[in-house]
Design goal:
Length: about 550
């Protein structure tokens, strides 16, 4: 036999034996590990706690025997609470035991301790479940808004207790197989009940949505009715509570692999909340289909009317802006009339206010075409204005100061003013601040509040202004001659006015000179040119006429020692 033939036979033998070896290996169960002592002690302690709860339930049942009236109701409520605690502890422990089994630990002993309780679990839960289901029924009585909210809160609380029991049953069906129990019957009953519960809660949401739409429409027609407002609040609360109940039911249904897309779509439509459920392809597709159909139906029935309304509103807005431009031009023309004696700021304010008022009225008229009530809108704008005003106190303080400047007119655009720590020509004015341009061409913006709180000096408020000049001559010079020179200089300078008369006087006898004053009157625009020119001309004339302008001198007397 050749080597090639031998290798071929060995390969065929391996291919035949490999599946058998793999099957034997798969059939051999993995050895279970003993539970860690700490975990075993903890789980055994929980078994003991459940036994105590079972004893408490039995003791309470004996006390409740023969009870009547209110006492019977109290015992029943206490029994249900104890039983729910016992059921919850049993299911929680069974869930943890199943988890330990999945990890490869030997939990046979613990399963045997809990097996009897788990077998009896469905029957024990059924009695409590029936009573809770009766308590979670919708009340159709005609009640006031306060009573409706109270009853809905009770209904939500009863539904939450019922959902807690349903959650235990769902968990029971999830772990029954790992505990060696058959839960197929419970699964079938639970599925049918969950479907019925979700359908009932879905109907409850539809009723809540209809009631909310009705109360909102009535409240919109009668906005001043306080009772209708309370009805709207009650309807909104009912919708929120019913949505919470349906969300709980759909969560349980999804754990049982039941279809919940229609209910999740309903929740999105009713609450408008875009949750993770929208990411589900089926839910999103269903919602888009419904919204598309609703949009198509609306456009077909109401489209022409709304299109005409939108076009009319747009035309009103366009006309209001065009009219505002016309109003602005007319008001500006009226303000520029020589008969109107107003500040530049006030003129600008009136022009702007007239144009903006025209636009505002046009916008209000356009909004009214959509059925919007202007009364509540104006009231809302008033409230918003109050809030904004409170938040902008400093700005409004500047605004108020601007109004005072506008009313009392201490200066206007073009005046040379010293105010707010700034000296310069007023370049622009607004109700919030004033812009100055200084002599060296700097632009300074000063808040009106700073200007109004300080002394305002308007240098150019008068048409004429006095130029104050002071010249010093020596004590040895002729005072009359010096005064004659000053008189001649002032008389021959063309900017000096004849009236009021120029004032020339001996002003002060200084330490080293006699000081003379020259105070001619000029037009305000000629002030600085006159000041600088006369100073230069007087200096030159004094030099020509031999009048000296002395330096400061001090006489020092030396005393000879005695």
């Amino acid at each position: 036999m050749t080597m090639r033939t031998t290798l071929t036979l060995l390969g065929l033998l391996f291919l035949w034996a490999a599946p058998l070896l793999y099957a034997q290996e798969q059939e051999a169960p993995a050895a279970l590990q003993p539970l860690p002592e700490e975990v075993a002690a903890q789980l055994n302690g929980r078994v003991a706690e459940i036994d105590l709860l079972v004893d408490d339930v039995a003791a309470m049942e004996r006390q409740a025997e023969g009870a009547e009236g209110l006492r019977a109701v109290m015992y029943s409520a206490r029994l249900d609470s104890l039983r729910l605690s016992m059921f919850s502890a049993t299911i929680s422990l069974a869930k943890d035991i199943a988890a330990q089994q999945k990890k490869g630990f030997d939990v046979t002993e613990l399963k045997q301790l809990l097996l009897d309780d788990l077998k009896a679990f469905p029957d024990k839960v059924a009695a409590v479940f029936e009573r809770l289901d009766k308590a979670a029924q919708f009340n159709y009585e005609e009640l006031g808004p306060r009573e409706i909210v109270v009853n809905d809160k009770k209904l939500l609380r009863a539904s939450q207790r019922l959902d807690a029991v349903l959650d235990m049953l769902v968990t029971y069906t999830e772990i029954a197989g790992s505990m060696g129990l058959d839960a197929s019957e419970q699964v079938e009953l639970l599925n049918s009940f969950l479907v019925e519960t979700a359908a009932n809660r879905s109907s409850f949401i539809e009723l809540a949505v209809d009631q909310l739409d009705l109360t909102r429409s009535v409240a919109a027609a009668l906005p001043g009715d306080a009772e209708l407002s309370s009805w709207v609040d009650a309807a909104e609360e009912r919708l929120a509570l019913s949505s919470t109940a349906l969300q709980s039911a759909t969560a349980l249904m999804r754990r049982m692999n039941l279809d919940t897309r229609q209910y999740r779509q309903q929740l999105v439509r009713a609450t408008g909340a875009l949750t993770a459920d929208v990411l589900d392809v089926g839910v999103f597709t269903g919602l888009v289909s419904e919204w598309s159909k609703a949009a198509f139906d609306f456009s077909r029935s109401e489209g022409p009317r709304w299109l005409f309304t939108i076009l009319l509103a747009a035309l009103i807005v366009f006309a209001s802006f065009r009219l505002a431009r016309l109003v602005r031009r007319l008001v500006e023309k009226a303000m520029m009339s020589g008969k109107v004696n107003m500040s530049h700021l006030l003129k600008r304010m009136i022009v702007s206010a007239a144009a903006n008022l025209t636009i505002f009225l046009g916008l209000l008229f356009a909004l009214s075409q959509f059925g919007i009530s202007l009364g509540p809108l104006l009231a809302g704008l008033g409230i918003v204005g109050f809030i904004v005003g409170f938040a902008l106190q400093d700005t409004l303080s500047n605004f108020a100061s601007g109004l005072m400047i506008l009313i009392y007119r201490p200066f206007d655009v073009g005046d040379f003013v010293a105010a707010g720590g700034v000296t310069g020509k007023v370049d622009r004015m607004s109700l919030v601040n004033t812009t100055f341009k200084t002599l060296d061409n700097q632009v300074l913006v000063v808040p009106n509040n700073m200007i109004w709180q300080t002394v305002i000096t308007n240098v150019t408020a008068q048409r004429t202004r006095r130029v104050d000049l002071t010249f010093a001559i020596s004590y040895s010079d002729d005072i009359d001659k010096a005064k004659a020179i000053l008189q001649d200089v002032a008389k021959n300078y063309e900017a000096v006015l004849e009236t009021p008369e120029t004032n020339i006087r001996v002003h002060e006898l200084g330490d080293s000179s006699v000081k003379l004053i020259l105070r001619p009157w000029v037009k305000t625009d000629d002030y600085w040119d006159t000041y600088w020119d006369l100073t230069e001309i007087v200096k030159k004339r004094f030099d020509e006429e031999g009048i000296t302008i002395p330096f400061p001198q001090r006489a020092v007397h030396m005393l000879e020692p005695q």
